[in-house]
Design a protein that fits this description.
Blueprint: H1 41-61, H2 64-70, E1 74-80, H3 88-104, E2 115-122, H4 128-133, E3 142-147, E4 160-166, H5 199-223, E5 224-236, H6 249-265, H7 271-275, H8 286-294, E6 299-307, H9 318-337, H10 342-354, E7 368-376
Parallel strand pairs: 1-2, 1-4, 2-3, 4-5
Antiparallel strand pairs: 5-7, 6-7
Organism: Sesamum indicum
GO molecular function: metal ion binding; methyltransferase activity
Family: Belongs to the methyltransferase superfamily. Type-7 methyltransferase family.
């Protein structure tokens, strides 16, 4: 549901400040039937749509001459929230190839093109083994893994030239505290995510999202060189859509929440167990995201495009849609409810999907992806 808008080597040994956050849960590891590798076509679809825009922005706005003067022998790119690489590798190929083309057309008189290094980042529990064991054998960059929470510092000061993140910034560092407090006006009783009719819950989620996105931006501002570019692919929802005849990813998640309540009523676990479980996600609107990004003193918003994610057509059945959400949510659900309920939960979820003419039609999925391109201002 949509919520309404709310009001470097020289530092290698320094302690990097990081926010306090709840444990993060990685996507399902490996390459089995419930893995993220096998069930992330929804997220993959937007990469091809974003390709010409990213290439255009690099060609027109990446200042190779200035950036090359900072580290003349190497050029650093980072993917924040890379998961197991299945969707990251095509994106990194697009970015690095565009950088090489920009360098070739820049007129720089240098012995050779600087070496490209790609930093693959995700939470410390991410399946980096699968990522590095499946790296493309023929690639135009050197690969480095940096585990850690991207809401805090990860890289040396003024070392990063191009930053990228796709389908990751919807994750919050924590569920808003007021949402889980029974005495709070924002208590989210009986739900696992915000809904349109709970204004206080929406506001709490939006405030947490703004805080976390600002922390991400502040960390990148320290790490990026002046003139560096950042491309963010952010899952989102339109400001207005009809919940009676259309749906978005939050609708799907709330449908899953109703399955948990059904299981609680059958005695599988207590309703209080559901009341104490809330998903650490927020799906912004374009207006909300633009306001947050434009408030940055370190980055200039160069471009903001709303993309209609074609990945929704890659989930042709209720089984495929359930597998998509299971690959993302299984760790979270298992930690709170135990592993014994997972199969039954997603069977019930598929039954509810099959009974709804709305959820069976991908044309009714109004979820969007926002591509934001930002440039690091000069200090």
């Amino acid at each position: 549901m949509t919520c309404k808008d709310g009001k470097a080597d020289n530092v290698a040994n320094e302690a990097l400040p990081r926010p306090t956050y709840l444990p993060f849960y990685p996507m399902n590891p490996g390459d089995g039937p419930h893995s993220y590798v096998q069930n992330s076509s929804y997220q993959r679809g937007v990469v091809d749509i974003a390709k010409p825009i990213i290439e255009d922005e690099i060609a027109r706005k990446l200042d190779i001459k200035n950036l090359s003067s900072t580290t003349p022998n190497c050029f650093w790119v980072a993917d924040f929230g890379c998961s197991t690489g299945h969707n990251s590798f095509p994106a990194m190929q697009i970015v690095t190839q565009a950088i090489y083309q920009k360098h070739a057309s820049s007129g720089l008189i240098t012995p050779k093109v600087p070496e490209l290094f790609v930093v693959f980042n995700d939470v410390i529990t991410n399946d980096f083994n699968t990522l590095f064991s499946t790296l493309p054998p023929y690639r135009n960059y050197n690969a480095i893994g940096v585990p850690g929470d991207f809401h805090g510092r990860l890289l040396p000061e003024s070392s990063l030239h191009f930053a990228y993140s796709s389908w990751a910034l919807q994750w919050l560092t924590e569920v808003p505290k007021a949402v889980a407090e029974s005495g709070s006006p924002a208590w989210n009783k009986g739900e696992i995510l915000y809904t349109r009719d709970r204004v206080e819950v929406c506001a709490a989620y939006l405030n947490q999202y703004a805080k976390d996105l600002e922390a991400f931006m502040e960390a990148r501002a320290v790490e990026m060189v002046s003139g560096g570019l950042m491309a963010l692919l952010v899952p989102a929802v339109p400001a207005f859509w009809n919940p009676e005849t259309e749906y978005t990813i939050p609708s799907d998640l709330n449908l899953l929440g109703s399955c948990l309540m059904d299981m609680a009523k059958k005695g599988k676990f207590s309703e209080a167990k559901v009341d104490s479980f809330n998903l650490p996600f927020y799906f912004t609107t374009p207006e909300q995201l633009k306001a947050i990004l434009e408030s940055s003193h370190s980055f200039a918003l160069e471009r903001l495009e709303i993309l209609n994610n074609p990945g929704k057509y890659t989930l042709p059945s209720v089984n495929a849609r359930a597998a998509f959400f299971r690959a993302v949510l299984e760790g979270l659900l298992t930690d709170h409810f135990g592993s014994d309920i997972i199969d039954e939960l997603f069977t019930l979820y598929m039954e509810k999907l099959a009974a709804s003419p709305v959820f069976l039609n991908p044309d009714k999925d109004k979820s969007i992806v926002i591509l934001a391109v930002l440039k690091r201002r000069s200090d």
